[in-house]
Structure formats: C-alpha cells, structure tokens
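During the first year of the project, the team set up a workflow for recording each protein of interest as an amino acid sequence followed immediately by a discrete structure-token representation. This format lets reviewers and collaborators read both layers of information side by side without switching files. As required by the reporting guidelines, we include two representative entries from the current panel. The first entry is reproduced here exactly as it appears in our internal archive.
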Amino acid sequence: MPTIAYQLYCSRNFPPLDGTLSMLAGAGYKAVEGYGGLYDDLAGLKAGLDRNGLSMPSGHFALDMVEGDPARTLKVARALGVQKVIVPWVAPELRGTDLDSWKSFAQRLATALAPIRDEGFVTGWHNHDWDFADLGGTTPMDLIVDAGLDLELDLGWVKRAGLDPVETLRRFSGRVRAVHVKDLAPEGQNAEEDGWADVGHGTQDWAAIKAELDAQGIDHFVIEHDNPADHARFARRSLESVQAW
C-alpha cells in the first residue's frame, strides 16, 4: 500500500497544530510530514500524532540543524519514527552561483547528511525551481545526485521550472525516494494561492505521472500546497484525488 502523507507546512497559517492534526485524521490521513519549528515541542508533537493515529515517515530538517547538530537531528527523527530525513531549502546566500560553487554546495550537503545516513536513515534533498538552473549542460539537481544524494522530488516545482514531471522522474530514476504531489492552477488563476491548486484540480497530468511512479516503484506521496486559502478544503479534496489513483 502506498504512503499518502500531508506536509504540515501547508497548515502553518492555520493554528493550532492540534486542530490541524484532528482535521487531517478526520479527513482520512494516516501520515504526515514534519518540518522545522514543529520539532521544538517534540513531546507535544509526538503526543498529538499518537492521539490522532498519525505517523511521520518523513520530515524536513534544515541544513543548519543537520549540519550543526546531527545528534539532535537523530533524536528528533527517532522520537517521531521518521525514516526519511530531507533537507528542503537553503537561503539564497548559501546556494551556488556557478558550476564550481554548486559542486561545493552539493558536497557540503552530502557531508552534512552522511552521519544521518550512516545511522540507517534515508536522506535526501527536496527541490524547488531554482535548483534546475542551467549551469552549462548540467544543473544543481544533477550535481546533488552526482554527490551521492537521493531526492524527494517536488513535482509542482518541477513543472514550475518549465520541465515535464514524467521526464524528470525518468531522468532521476532510482534516486527518488518520495514525491511531493503538488498541482498548479491554470495560468492567471488562484493568484491568492500563489498559483497553486488542490491536487487533481490543476494542470498536472496525474495519469501519466502515476504511471511513471508505478513503473519506478515510488509509493511515498506527500500532498502539498504552499499557500492554501483553506487548508481543510485542500487536504480533503487532494486526498480524494490521490486515493482515486
């Protein structure tokens, strides 16, 4: 059975967390993906997950946490049952600007995640659109994979980068450990939601994407919307779409 999770970042503007977890459980979710500041109240987060029958098979962990405090990263992951530790983003000043600096960043990322991977966790990188920049025949994403890292491929940002999600899945075949299932509204629509859409209600070709996911044996889907106007509506409609696959 596939894992269908909800990235809790979607609901950051809809506190409290307990209400979000209850809403997700009521909508039929069994899993979520954590991020950043949620780990500050580790006991409270764990209690909320348990109370609502939710697991957390993957989590986003900032590079400064993974690199600066791998012991805490491991403690958090183990306490929450996280199996996949994903670095999701870095500030612009930490990113590369050319081929050599991106190579250096990719190696830095690989070095930071090595102690986590050595403890038996799946580790990887979550993309946006800027990590598909042309570096003269390669991209930051290619360099990150070349450095030995796996991926949590965000299919929404892939399309926003002007790329085909199916072709991109094939490009990184064997290195994708999970996908962010994210949809885009038709051009000019949903401006109040930054142009994103509920999964299955946008422009992504989910039939073709799902066929490729099946072909590669990828069965960990994380539902996400970066700025939903109504997180309960988004959660419900998106889960219905993914379950219909």
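The second entry, processed by the same pipeline in the following quarter, appears below.
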Amino acid sequence: MSERPVGPADLTVTLANAKAERVKRVAALAGRSARSRAGVLLVEGPQSVREAVRHAAPRVRDVYLSDEAAARHGDIVSEALAAGLYVHLGTVEVLAAMSGDAQGVVAVVDSTGTSLDDVLAAGPRLVAVLSNVRDPGNAGTAIRVADAAGADAVVLAGDSVDPTNPKVVRASAGSLFHVPVARAPLADAVTALQRAGLTVLAADGSGDDVLGEDGAADPASLAGPTAWVFGNEAWGLTPEELSLADAVVRIPIYGSAESLNLGTAAAVCLYASAAAQRA
C-alpha cells in the first residue's frame, strides 16, 4: 500500500485502468462470497461513505473517489485524510467499474459482527427485530428508521437478508454505522430480550391490542424497555412467530389502505415507543 497523502491538494489520479486487479477485487464485493472471504463490506455512494468515515473510521480500509466526485465531496476527502485513511482517486471509468450505483464514491470497510450478547450487554431500551425480511431495500430502510427513532439495536432474524449486502448498506443511508445490527434465530432473540427485561411486541394486523389504545400498546405501557418484531414483507409473521411475543399489536388503519409497508409500520411503532420513553 502506498504512503498516505498529507492533504487533498496532494491527491492525484492514480487508478486509471478499469480492468486492474484492484478494481476487480472491489467490484467483486457486490457478491456475498467475496465479502465473506475478505471480511469486508462494500459501501457505495457519498452519504454512506461519509457516515462510514465519520462514525466507523477504524474499520475503513480504503476510500475511492473519481476525480469529479472528489471535487464535489471535498468534505469526505478531508475527513478521510484527517482520520489517516487511505484515499485513492480514480477515473470516472474506474469508479463506474467498481460500482455503477456509487456516484463515484466507494469505500471498503471491515465487517465486524455484532452478537446478540453484545446488544444485551449495553442494556437496550428499544430494539427492532426483523424476521425473514428479505428485501435489502426494506431491511436498510428499517435500519434507518430504527436509527432515527433512537433504537439501541436491530436484530435480523430467520432468513433475513445479509446486512452486508451493498443494497442494505445503501438503503440504510449510513445508519448501519450508527446502530448495532446483530443476527440471531427469532426464538433465541425473543427469549433473550424477554430475559433482559424487554417487553416483546409483534406488529401484525391480526393483533388484539391497538397501537395507542389501552392495553399492551398504550403510551404508558410503551414507556418501558420494548422490542418490536416486524415480519416478512409479503406474509408478515406466522402464527408460530406471533406466539413468541408478549402481545400482538396492530396499527389502526383509519382510511381505505389495506396495510402499511414495512418501513412505514416500523416508523409508526418505533416512534410510538420512542415518544413514550421520552415523555
């Protein structure tokens, strides 16, 4: 690896061959097997790379920008260099070969696993659990919502999407670097959260409790430590999954819409808890 430049003015285009091995290795990180072997994730786009540099700098191996993107996003270059990170400029063609969705800004970041034990050791008061959420855009959006609502962690359960999927990273808009994300079987996660003193609420249209009304989902009850479980985008939560929760809660639908999408439902539920906990 070459010596780090001392400032933005010293950066020059050093990557000009879109078929170079380094470029191919970065592009290959779009695949799960390559990420797993290397123990890294691919971060695409200025917003996500900026948040990685700001909040996870010790994990950032390399930052790549096209010369045009470096001119537009000087803050990323300056902060990365100030953090002592390796910053590389490439041609527009090189960055496009690394990722066609990155707007000329890419980072390679160590993928550090967060365990359920790590989550519980921090004494969480608000946790989002995603069960069998397979669409990377939905998972990333839910992580972003959880971060915005001040949740302490997100747990991906069952056959949920790999959180290092570049589409998850991009949809989280950097929140993946703000909030811990763990993986665990749903039953194990629910049991551990309950033992840690959290009330586990399953969000589902079949619920007897209605969000905001007296019962398990009224503001007073939501003031305590709470974990919300959200199900698959297509079929929600199965009867077996629902039986694990302390209560099943439905969001009232006052209009004619059949239901809410995952991100919206997560926002409604998590913000209800966040508001109650801060009241």
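For the second entry, the following points were noted during internal review. The longest strand covers residues 60-66. Residues 42 and 216 are 41 Å apart (CA to CA). Both points are flagged for discussion at the upcoming steering committee meeting.
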